[in-house]
């Protein structure tokens, strides 16, 4: 566990730059990052093809029937999903473990609202992975469309962000309840009207805290918020934002489950999303998974618990209680991992197997379709030139973000560079909390 000295060091000193590849020298880091950038580049090219060739033209269907439009887009999402997780998870050796796979299998039978902690930048990728599976441990389940509640800036991120906006129709929020309430309700109700069921993932914490000054301040504010409400300060999670949930319950108003999800990330026996104030904390992103090919894979552990509430209930108290539980789960896992090591830690979990061959075949099919279309249009040279240019842009934007922010922030491609520039000029206003107002509302 993190010592008091380490906590003070994090809160009082400047951010420490995180290495691109843990424990690797210059040459190994260079070669590993070349592969990781290639993986991101292939992801972008595949998504670009699915978005512009298979996705946007299908908007013509929406003029005649939203039901059939959503059905087509659901099929397209299922076609895209394997190429999203294939390289970052299959090729890099990442494994997912669950303590209650039967609960997720049940949740996939209908609409579901999944409330997850925000210990990584790849929650969306894990959501796509588990929604795609048709077997969880020993339990058969349905393949399910998945959506996410995302910060508004994500929809403007090239390719993946556009795909999530136009194909997946995710819920993009600006963190103003007055502004977001109608957005959330309209999105949920439009899916109900089209009779299109999905799992909707949300991280009530709202943000991932890095190691900058605003991040440290926000962590301190969340700890103070807990104390003001009579809770012991959370150490592994931030305090949840609860107002939007009064609207998000629209997702399950005709049936379905609300599930609390706690995720932990482990590499080489080390818990990555450990105490918020720990100098050893890491925030996994796409690159954290991709570098596992040449180094150690990142494994993911998932705890689930069903919740029951409606818009009329005291959601604030329900969420604070659940986050106190989440915090304890992560603290207990951290201790078990330290005491028993990774092998002992796996006891009680079921590994989630998936069809690696199927994912690789779909990845290959994407490449054949793209190359075949380029060959038919006599644009093979253009495809190669575009791919190389995109590869260099990905290297530049990620490197720029890493140098400016001291860490990789790639939840979607290009985010490290774009967010670094935005934060440099405009700051991190999304990490400010109205503590003066909220903390006065005692439990």
UniProtKB/TrEMBL annotation:
* Residue stretches in coiled coil: none
Q: Which residues cross the membrane?
A: 34-61, 383-403
Q: Which Gene Ontology cellular component terms are annotated?
A: endomembrane system
Recorded GO MF terms? acyltransferase activity
InterPro entries the UniProt entry points to: Plipid/glycerol_acylTrfase (IPR002123)
Tree of life domain = Eukaryota
A Pfam family (short name) is Acyltransferase
Q: Which residues form the Phospholipid/glycerol acyltransferase domain?
A: 108-259
Name the UniProt key words of this record, in alphabetical order.
Membrane, Transmembrane, Transmembrane helix
Which protein, by its recorded name, is this?
A: Phospholipid/glycerol acyltransferase domain-containing protein
